[in-house]
User: Fold these one by one.
Assistant:
Number 1:
Amino acid sequence: MYGVKGNQMGLYTLHIATSYRNDIIDLYREMTNVTQKYYQKFLNYAVDEGYYPLPNLINVPTTVDFVSDINYTKGYRLFSDKREINTIEFSYLNQSIQTNTVGMMLMTGFAQTAVHTDVKDYFIKGKELSKDILEGTYDILIKDDIRVPTIHGLSLTRSNIPPFSDKLMMYLTFLLSNFGLGSQGFGAGFSLRDDINIKLGLFVKDIMLFIRENIRMMIDNGWLEEPPRMSVNNLRE
């Protein structure tokens, strides 16, 4: 839940930046405040109960260093070691592990309860995509001798009684996949090591293809509501 609230805060900030009416801006500001409040409550509960592992600790720097070697960005080096992952890169890799661990379990649960065969197959594909991203992220960290953080306490029941409709589960998957797309994109953009850039960029491609298939399936099943069109007839005179 804290992960969802974190994504909501980002969305509300984005919506404020694209809004012009004062009442709409005030609404998103209020929703941001509420979300921040409950994000902190959910996070504190998860940490206190041991469900959420704290990220790896580092020694606090005592000096300010500046990059002086162009090889700082090189993740592929044949005759020397590449530099260690920096804290910004680790933060995005750590977030990817947390979200895709939950995503893998969520897709498994959705597949277990889906009614339509094609929807069930789609969720299984989503589970495999999360596994691929996890394995790729683990590989980056392990090669740098960094402990891989994991979430505890995740499990599924054997129930196949659908708590949600296939339509709702598909739309939730669409939303969460777009959150994942943005997260991987930010990680690729802020990483300064080219091997991480490339791997996260490939994850972005795979997630985008997964989202496009979701859209196609929702259209085929009549589940995708069309947003208002930017036509002349919709504009105020």
Number 2:
Amino acid sequence: MSRVTTVLPGVLPGIRRARKEEREEISRLLGEAFMADPVSGWVFPDEEHRRAVHPRFFGVFLDAALRDGWVDVMEDYSAAALWLPMMVGETAGAGAGAGGGEDDGHDEMTEALAAADPGNERTRIVGELTALAHPTDRSHYYLPNIVAAPGRTGEGRGSALLEAVLERCDREGMPAYLEASNTRSKALYERHGFVFTGRTVDLPGGPPMWPMWREPRG
């Protein structure tokens, strides 16, 4: 059963680190939030099937973040952000890039995404193409998913979730990386200092994705 916190009008809920036992509630939020996403619509063209498989598909990212990174969630489960530390070189040893290098982490993620919907080659394609675009030469924090519940977008939830971690990035001198899946989210990320890397991820016959990088601010 979901636990809901009463929130005053105009006041955003508090943000805290999610616990592993909240996985079901957060996977449900991810699934609902991405129903209208253009990339997800390409991966899962049938709406009924998309709704059924979404929690399992996005659960791949959620499990990785709960295991190797962290998940920030609003107290009323209206928004969440998944973060993975991607470490290379001497800093490797924790996070998704550890234990054999970042490429191994990408391969593992691609296989897990494909297994989430067997027989749907598009799950593998999106995993492989985003992995090819992902920078591998510098350690960074990777944001695979950030969502607000349907009907709660445009209320500052995404910005609030971003700001807390981006302040950490600035303190630590750590870059951040993500892929924007639509122009609306791309504009949000640009307002927070992310810059398009210059080459889109082009899904065959589908919508583009925009890889974006943010340098820490001094």
